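B., you asked whether I could sanity-check this one before it goes into the benchmark set. Here's the sequence:
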Amino acid sequence: MSDFTHPTRRTIVKTAGVAALAAQSAVRVLGANERLRLGFIGVGNRGFGGHVKKAARVKEMGANVELAAVADVYDGHRERAIDYAEAQTGVRPTAYVDYQDMLAREDLDAVFIGTPDHWHAKMAIDALRAGKHVYCEKPMTKTTEEAFAVVDAWKQSGRVMQVGVQSTSLPVWSRANELIREGKIGKLIQFQTEFYRNTAFGQWRNRKLTPEMTPQSIDWKRWLGLEAGLVEEEMPFDRAVFVQWRAYWPYGAGMYTDLFVHRTTSMLKATGLRLPGRVVGGGGIFYEYDGRDVPDVATVVADYNEGAQLLITASMVTAGAPIQQLIRGHHGSFVFGNGEQFTGFDFVPEDQRVLQDPTIVAERIDTEDVADTTYAHVKNFVDSIREGTPEACNNTPELGAAAVATVNLGARSYKEGKAFFLDPATRIATDRDPGWAKKWERMSHSGSRPNHVPGWSAGDRGSTLETLDHMRLGGPWVDGKAPEER
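And here's what the prediction gave me:
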């Protein structure tokens, strides 16, 4: 397999603004009780189980929605989804091979995108251009540049867009963010997350290949996206690539975009942080020598201009002893544990010799349980459309883009052997160091106050140092006089 990024993908970025502006003329306003017609693009593993099935469940629970259309390049996936939707709802969706034909329907209100990563940006922007609301499976896009293009298209369109990290529909992250902004853990310093797995056969190889998958049943050229400028060259039909595409750079980025995005998005929602300032990645293919491109061990370290650091680490070949997910502050830490189905977290305070405040004690903070986060996430999307509140989505494109920037730059760092720096004002990533270390040194030498997460309202709580008496003896001697004599 070849490149992780591809120059022709820039066309998606260049056309995003025009696409978004065009969307506004195609919007169909819904009445309070009017039926919401849904279309589904890509109904393989996640698109079928996480999109079609959950939308049918939303309808079963009383929402006025119709599963109206299905587009997929594989006959088997398309017909399975259509048959299921008809059996569950009594209405047979219209079948499409080309998703553009589906988007041309004026009566379609929203689409779900469940295709491989390399199609996400183009399909999302095309759908916004057509005036549709969009639910796009994670990662929101394949590249950082595409992520910002989608954010711009979304903002200009006025449509609702949900990014499919279902764990963001857990209330635990909003509760953690509220307490962090109030100063519960003091100045936020560092946070970490993980995703450890192990199999006897290699990651994603359990996705089954079948004899029915042939060039006759699959529009392979359309799936590759060569004519759309999504890949550099055509390759022979390969069932393993079609089904297990996450293992190959042209279509995905392995654990970076499959697993890291899940945990990173949740942590960014909890901390309130968004775009990183500096990102580095390491790892390698240390065990799974089965023809894959992507590493089986990887770590990403992201530093933020707010003065905090994120560690994302995982192995696809060990699972017995993962690190814990947690957020560290000067006064204490929020410890979540492992997995992603949380009903609360523990506050673990620092030593009283540091705190000197007996009111800061260990505490369990409970939050509401959500039994089916995927259903809750789809329902949140449908409710946001009905209420006309794009910002009410639990994972908006701005949060989706922040996660993509973090994991994408981490993957690029691993692949290219470089550290990457992202300017939040220009949203341009470069491997040219703008003086990252020197910036923090200047703050230290000038006695600056620490930077904080967005929405910080706790003043100096947990973010100022005690000055010991003997430190007055420090400093340069001037004209032969000691510091304490001046």
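One thing to flag: DSSP finds 14 helices and 16 strands in the chain. Otherwise nothing jumped out at me.
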